[in-house]
Amino acid sequence: MTVLIKYIYIFIYIFFNGSFLTWLKMLVCSGTQNDLSTTGNSEIQYNLMRERYTGCEIVMGNLEITMMEHTRDFSFLQSIREVTGYILFAINEFSRLPLDHLRVIRGTTLYEDQYALAVMVNYQKEGQHGLQELGLTHLTEILEGGVKIIQNKYLSYAPQVIWQDIVKDGAAPIILEDNGPESDEACEDVPCWGPGNDTCQILTKTVCAPQCNGRCFGRNPSECCHNECAGGCTGPLDTDCFACRNFNNSGSCVPQCPQTVIYNKHTFKLEPNPDAKYQYGSICVSQCPTNFVVDGSSCVSNCPTHKMEVEKNGVKRCELCGGLCPKGMQCTECHRMTLILCHPLLPMKSTLKSFCISQGIWIPEGDTVKLPVAIKTIHDRTGRQTFFEMTDVRKQNTVHFKKRIAGHWAIN
Description:
This protein is mostly beta strands. It has 4 helices and 31 strands. The strands form 10 sheets. It has a 7-stranded mixed beta sheet with strand order 25-24-28-31-30-29-27, with no helix packed on it. A 5-stranded parallel beta sheet has the order 1-2-4-6-8. The radius of gyration is 28 Å and the shape is globular. GO terms for molecular function: ATP binding; transmembrane receptor protein tyrosine kinase activity.
């Protein structure tokens, strides 16, 4: 009911406000990277997970559920369709992992650097409670990494699943050890995830005709999925995919999002693309979400060290550091100061909106700055007397500021 209410709220909000970013924020949630550590006690950890994942469809990162008692209700996980990192389910006591709508685990990060799905030690040491069903009834593809399911005392169905149909990489490890006794139940000629005919495994790879390069929706040569599909499909088009191998562009699976520039064959020039979109995980978006910045054609949480964040036309972007950089060195860090540098070798005053600091050559913060040229005068436009000495890295001599005259620093 909570998930239904949240979707009704999303629809109403988009209808009246047209806020795609708000909808996207509700659709996508951030995962965790705690491994087997916990945040506070069990109650705090559970409430954090419920708040984080209720109504979420795409987990950006890892889905980690550890050390939960058998009384906990995890039905709020049923909306999740995709996890970009790994799934870790360990040291829990409840009987079923309700990820019935999960289609794809991308495995961009792997547990123990090997596993996209790790299910371990899920039973009560002194009692009868423990994991009996994985509940992954719609999981059809793991793009990177393998599977590790060990020491689940009451789990009987996992060994029956044809994991080779799910795991894309044939060389990825699949470890199934010390679990419960295998069940005799089956769904006709295919394995099942649990009791009942509604838990039959959906096969989308091992049953395909040789003509299919990836997944299929039937056994005939004409029933191959589109190459951009992940996890299977309902038809041959790029709009029929269960999930996208690379990017989802408004319902179509594409190898890349519409680029920011396109080639004009009449003018022989690159021109801005009015339909450009940015990569946000596996989604193409027209705007990056709040707290993300544009770096080329992608939405990133922070600019790389050799770039600085600037705002143009209301959009935050990453741009290369301006200013001087020692010859032959790669600029690796920005130092944000606005200075006018005057030097006899320069034909005119040069305004620098940032120093470009090369590791091992420049010092980014503090009272000493190393410059690639001998500067005679510095005009401080920031109004702050930040730097008190400079060092010429070639001669290793230090010049000290003497006094400030008419807005200029006079130095020895």
